[in-house]
Structure of Ubiquitin carboxyl-terminal hydrolase 39:
Amino acid sequence: MSSRGKRDRDRDRERERGGGGGGSGSGSGSARGSARSRREGEGERGRGRREAERGRDKREAAESGGGGPGPGLGLGGGPARLKKEPGGGGGAWAGPAAGAGSGPLRVKREREPEGESDPEPEPAVRYGRFDPEDQRSRHCPYLDTINKSVLDFDFEKLCSISLSHINVYACLVCGKYFQGRGLKSHAYIHSVQLSHHVFLNLHTLKFYCLPDNYEIIDSSIKRPPGDIMFLLVQRFGELMRKLWNPRNFKAHVSPHEMLQAVVLCSKKNFQITKQGDGVDFLSWFLNALHSALGGTKKKKKTIVTDVFQGSMRIFTKKLPHPDLPAEEKAQLLQNAEYQETMVESTFMYLTLDLPTAPLYKDEKEQLIIPQVPLFSILAKFNGATEKEYKTYKENFLKRFQLTRLPPYLIFCIKRFTKNNFFVEKNPTIVNFPITNVDLREYLSEEVQAVHTNTTYDLIANIVHDGKPSEGSYRIHVLHHGTGKWYELQDLQVTDILPQMITLSEAYIQIWKRREEDETNQQGA
């Protein structure tokens, strides 16, 4: 109730008290005055009640909005409307100055237009995914905690807790292996408990910081192209130094690190647990060493090419289809396409073709094992012997002539042929001398005057025994100090007579060219 209404009510009460001792005229006048004042007081009280209810409704509406001051009601700065309950009178909508006689008001907040509200910031890094825009990746403060003295990556890639080989990370602070990098993974728990932050994914070779879980990007850890091949050179060099070290503590050397490098660099084409083909491995190994040492196919040379690489001329002539008539063949042979061409090529080893093995048995019902001299299969490179090579569409005649002989010459005797069903082995025995193999007649005439030393001596012979897929290898090696031959098979080393070497199924041979002083000693 307002102060004005209170004053009017008090005035009416005083009038009633003063008019009580008068006559009838005054009594009737006071009665009319008191009735009028009573009506005016009731009107004032109604107005005060309405104003109080209006103020209470405003406060309730402001409290229900939950926001700060704004236009109209306090609804967090957004536009709002007051809705009158049905039966309260008046219009359907009323503003802040709605009449007091209306029913209880209900606040309805209008929907804010989309795009005006600020989006919630997303985390820069989610577990399992890396955000390339995270600035922490290039400014990791934990790189100085890496302890190189405890790192050893020769162990099997297994988690030290779960023994799982899937998604394994190496802690670069303590050297242990853990699985995963999620919130509940062993690597994450290890990083939280011991404050070890830098981890390496052993599969992708990427670096991560845990528990923040962002990839570390630094120019110092970028892998240069071809660095895997450098590992092959390093491991092979270490193995050679161990073999020829006169102060070794043990008489044997383990090639395990070298074999691991071969598996890695060959992308598991050659594995420790599976026997592969000796010629395929030799070809890949020599070319891989040459590339890792910085050599190229044409210009730059390395120690590998200086020792094993020779050169030859290849003469090629295209043949017409055998089903064509003789006249068409004669016409085609006049075309330039069917004329003989010559190209210069290099080689790391020479492939010697064996004659076809006989299919019939002898009188004792046993298979005949043919024998062929070494010089017969070397006739392929005399520049005159032609051999036909067939493809799916065309046939060619080729002949080869040597132009340069390397210091160490490798012969690969082709014993295995593949057909549509299986791999077949040729058991033909090659008869060859151990020393004094002269290859001068296989050189061109202009090259023979340049090459003064063309005599070679055998220093190693690799033999394949058994079936193509289930066979084993033996190696015959010459000891230069004593002139004796030794046979090596796995860990077994035995003496062998030179005459027995020629009776084996030779697969790969390494010949060493005699120098002038050695030739003079042999002649004396």
